[in-house]
Prior knowledge:
Number of strands: 20
Strand content: 5-15%
Helix content: 40-55%
Shape: globular
Largest sheet: 6 strands, mixed
Distance between the termini: 95 Å
Number of domains: 6
Low-confidence stretches: 405-410
CATH superfamily of the largest domain: P-loop containing nucleotide triphosphate hydrolases
CATH architecture of the largest domain: 3-Layer(aba) Sandwich
Structural class: alpha/beta
Radius of gyration: 38 Å
Mean pLDDT: 82
Amino acid sequence: MTLIDDGTILERRMEATVSGILNSLLLVFSLMGIGLGAWEVLNAIETSAVMDAILGRSWPMAAGWLGILAGCFLGFRWYRSVTNIATIPDDAPGDVADVWQRPARDMITVVRPVVMTVLERAWQHAAKDGDRWITPAHILASMTHTPEVGSMLVRMGIDPAELRDHLAKLSPGEHHPHAVPVPSLGSRTLLAEAFRRAADANRPRIDLVHLLAAYGNLTDPTRELLYDLKVDDAVLGEAVAWLDIQESLRHRIRRYQSRSSMKPKGNMDRAYTAVATPILNQFSTDLTLLARNGHIPFIVGRDEELESLFRIIETNRRSVLIVGDSGVGKTSILHALAERMVAEDVPSVLQDKRLVSLSAASLVAGSGGAGQLEGRIESVLTEIARSGNIVLAIENFDQLVGASSAGSENLDAAQIIAEAAANRTCIVIGTTTLTAYHRTLERGVIPSAFERLELDEMEPPAAIRVLQSRVGPLEHRYGVYFTFNAIDKAVSFARRYMRDKTLPGSALDLLEEAAVIAGKEGKHALVTGEHIARLVSQRTKVDVTEITSGEQTKLLKLEELMHARVIGQSEAVSAVSDALRRARTELRDEKRPIASFLFLGPTGVGKTELAKTVAEVYFGSEEAMIRLDMSEYQDIASISRLIGEAGSGGTLTDAVRERPYSLVLLDELEKAHPDVLNIFLQVMDDGRLTDGAGRTIDFTSVILIATSNAGTSHIQDRLKDGAALTTIKSELIEDVLQKIYRPEFLNRFDGIIVFTPLNEEEIEKIVALMIGQIAHRLNAKGITLKASPEAIAELARIGFDPLFGARPLRRAVQDHVDNALARFLLEGKIGRRDVAVLEAGGAVRVEKAAPIA
Length: 853
């Protein structure tokens, strides 16, 4: 950077200008001269004097020879400009301290032109402001003027102009009107770090991505300013990765275009030995032709899977069945293979071949006559074998299982194609889901004809990289820009809440839908993390948006809200409220269920009612509750009912798979078989289960509540003795429960909560709640219901049973209130605007409303 000043900036610009003018003149002179020479030769052809014209001394021919010389000189200048570019040497040091030992000239000469422009602009800004030092703030302010960094800032939610205003306030404070700025210690460290990063990445020169990445290791006020603007290491890493991906894609596109130009456009191979495939063409799509014409997006992050695919195919030309859940990227593997085949960047067995995707639906459709489908398949396979340059791809291979035409019930199209693959007459690459594989493909010749290649769900960092490479077309289509936060939220929320598909497909669906919503807000709208959160909240009924002031108040008053339905049981309500607050503020372990509780206590004290209340408060409705009566699972064989058998799901796994954001209530847990409890041990430990179909069911968005009457008599006896709840709980865990549940099972619960028997006052409050529910239903009919304190106390006495708690209350209210009101309604004794008053003795008095004049 010591090589930058007014003189060197002017020198570089003049050199670039003069060089550009000279190259332009050489190009024009070369084209004109060659044109005149060609015109002279064409005229000579008519007079059969071509050689005389070429060897003659006419001025047009002389101009032609001079034009050729000018073109050669222009080519030489271009070659020299390319080969004379200084690059980072292979033995460049990998430590910043070692980089410092290199002369500044070594680092300056290996920067790309855009970086040199940034450094020159930084020098000019410092000189203009009279700053003695060129600081990292000057360099970053200069970088904001580049389209690449400017767009990254927008994706971070930062206005480049506002950032420049902030950076201007970080001036070192030493102003000298005529001083020549020199780089500060921070700037030299920044450039040395960029040099090291470029060397580590095996890049020939320092690019913007390396300079931007260097701010991550900087100890400087500029870095602290970025932290204040919420650009932490993770966000900066996202920006650097995005820039790197875009540069890699540009490099791949240039390389791909160069190498794909030799790929034949039609059915023929380069040796012209292939034959036409008219029947196959009716039911298929040539993926290599689509890739050659740029109709398939470039695929990122599938190199490892492709290498596995190549290894399988190279082993005796074995066919492959790609198995993975929806959204995992099976189609992307085929697209990536087509791209590599076009560029001939594949093993020799796949070179000079076409990847043709056969549509199972099209093949079967319309094959109504007997033997027609058989004929189609045989014709297709014959064409493939004769052509010799076709790799057959079949998506949703399971759709061919059992496919038959009328009159050929025993035909299985999948078996026929599998036999051809087993006989090595063609290479077949099929795709299917894990469920479909276990259900329909694990039999016959298929397992022996195909090698399985299983695709697991992408980890979030890899999924983010894929999305960064795929959002460009979405931005162009909908006129929006995606922020880093939107992509992060799409990945994290899709993984937690959208379990019908897997990453990266599930997150890509979220981004596209959010782009549609944001696009309606105006041109060039930003798709933010809040767009994604609102979308997920609408779909799942689980609030994942930023906590508003109103919701903050609600979260802080959860106990009060729950006590509107659950009478007493303060310890249970407080424990559950704390768990919900942790979940909403994302302070829980995301690899386990949201919360798991064991509710202990006598029947009728509010255990199930509290579970219903939690479902309504957290998931929006009591309907978001999966209730299992564990008395139905008392033998070991009932495990298959819960998780399913081979090829199918179970009661529990299917319910959670369909409603992954729900409350699972296990009633009367003590009655279940001990081996059944081991299933829930895994749920609480790992947050997942594998069902009978081989699918992994996610339980991390579930609240698990188990109720048990175990230890009821111990609880009642110790309460009569005046023991504290904490003492009773310890006694239960250390003695009574150990005889029923394994210690490791009990230890997995977030909380074991003891429910106490209800007292007389609490019973009366429950009666008042029930009366209120009846009053709410009567309000829809325009009728008001009131109950005297004496009537409520009387119902409490009638309905209370020490053994069954509040359970008999509902029948008492039904017998003494609901029945009387039903008779009055049927007899027409009560109508709109009337008031029904429940009095002691079970009498219901009606206060008729005054007639409307």
